User: Which sequence fits this backbone?
């Protein structure tokens, strides 16, 4: 083989490995991280002098679509007992725990936008007055660890119903006080275990775990569970996400 062509192949495969940070993509491709395997998996002909990013984007789109089809909104994630709760529960973010945002509870207002009929802001007392439920479920991190915790709040579908969200839309998006943002599919938003959570382990949600609220979804990987939520919006325009825009799988099912 021409040494220059071999060098190009090695560079492309190195880029593929670097971009495939999401285990969901690796599970999909398995051991096909060869030029032929990448091309076969996506139906895209690979040019030695082109970038593999086009192929990886196609893989990610296929992966999202496949997970969306497989997802059953009626299937429940496993639940556990108080004896199973991890103490202390791990902190995880793209910053250190001392950098967790401080949100003033008195002035806080949850903003609503997009395809929502009643977009009036919500203060914390009004949110805390909503019907409360708790779950003990497993948080699964994309980095390979997991931990069981107890979260409490309102079933998210109930909140969406109360504000008149258009649940025929494709996406629900979230903006957070720490600069994080993400979005989820509507079937997951309406899943009975998806909570807008205000408490952790029976106590008001501390800053390190997401005060004033987080979306808790045991059917999604951890990076899809936004913390420090300050705005919720409903849309048919793909919103992307903080990690998703960097190459992580958008659907992010656990």
Assistant:
């Amino acid at each position: 083989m021409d040494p220059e062509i071999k060098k190009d192949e090695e560079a492309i495969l190195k880029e593929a490995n670097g971009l495939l940070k999401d285990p969901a993509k690796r599970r999909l491709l398995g051991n096909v991280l060869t030029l032929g395997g990448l091309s076969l998996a996506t139906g895209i002909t690979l040019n030695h002098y082109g970038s593999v990013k086009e192929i990886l984007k196609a893989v990610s789109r296929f992966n999202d679509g496949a997970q969306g089809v497989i997802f059953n909104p009626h299937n429940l994630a496993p639940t556990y007992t108080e004896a199973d709760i991890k103490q202390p529960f791990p902190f995880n973010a793209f910053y250190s725990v001392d950098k967790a945002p401080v949100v003033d509870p008195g002035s806080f207002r949850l903003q609503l936008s997009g395809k929502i009929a009643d977009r009036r802001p919500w203060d914390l007392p009004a949110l805390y007055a909503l019907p409360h439920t708790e779950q003990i479920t497993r948080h699964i991190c994309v980095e390979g660890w997991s931990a069981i915790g107890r979260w409490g709040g309102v079933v998210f579908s109930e909140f969406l119903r109360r504000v008149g969200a258009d649940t025929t839309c494709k996406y629900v998006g979230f903006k957070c006080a720490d600069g994080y943002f993400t979005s989820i599919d509507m079937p997951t938003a309406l899943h009975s275990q998806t909570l807008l959570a205000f408490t952790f382990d029976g106590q008001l949600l501390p800053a390190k775990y997401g005060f004033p609220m987080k979306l808790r979804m045991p059917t999604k990987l951890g990076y899809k569970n936004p913390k420090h939520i300050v705005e919720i919006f409903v849309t048919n325009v793909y919103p992307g996400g903080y990690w998703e825009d960097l190459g992580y799988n958008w659907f992010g099912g656990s």
